[in-house]
Amino acid sequence: VGPSLTSGIVAGLPSIAGLDVRLEREGRLGWGMDASGVGLAVRRGSGRRVAFRQTEVELRLNAGPQWKHGPWTFSGALEAGALAVFQGGLPSDETRFGLEPLALVSGGVRLDVRGGVSMLLGASVGGVVARRESGVALVPRASASLMVGFTL
To answer: Per residue in 18-71, pLDDT tens?
Structure first.
């Protein structure tokens, strides 16, 4: 669980902040995959030049290898999911909704602190297939998060 900062997918909103919650499972999946998980993020932001509000809800599934060295765990993953985008407060008083697919490559480093508590620094890059007035476009996406983890 922790805060995240992500690049925006629309003009006027270069970045958007929010909260990430992840559930990860360690264990061999085959093909070099040592961990899998699911992530949920909720982010909110406001436009700068044109007044509007945007809320994003992102759901991701991931799988990838990890390497342990003492209290440190280094991981990489392929992620796929969906991004629900809600826009309101637009100058035209309309509201907009979009459900966009996304694909990411992520990496992170986790430090086991003590008693089942850990700190995780993670980053991801990839893209979102977003609808535009001119059609559909692949929009680059980057994100970083600093999280506190608990072993269940």
So the answer is: 999 999 998 888 787 889 999 999 999 998 888 899 999 999 999 999 999 999
Residue 17: both structure tokens together: 């902040």
Rounded CA-CA distance 6/141 in Å is: 7
Q: What does the block give as tokens for 18?
A: 């929010």
The pLDDT of residue 56 is: 96
- Domains of the chain, first to last: 2-150 (2.40.160.20)
Take residue 85 and report the two structure tokens written for it. Answer: 């985008």
Could you report the per-residue pLDDT of 83-103, keeping only the tens digit for each? 999 999 888 888 989 999 999
| Structure token digits, residue 87 | 């826009």
Tokens of 104: 């990411």
Q: What is the chain written as a DSSP string?
A: -EEEEEEEEETTEEEEEEEEEEEEEEEEEETTEEEEEEEEEEEEEE-SSS--EEEEEEEEEEEE-EEEETTEEEEEEEEEEEEEEEEE--TTS--EEEEEEEEEEEEEEEEEEETTEEEEEEEEEEEEEEEETTEEEEEEEEEEEEEEEE--
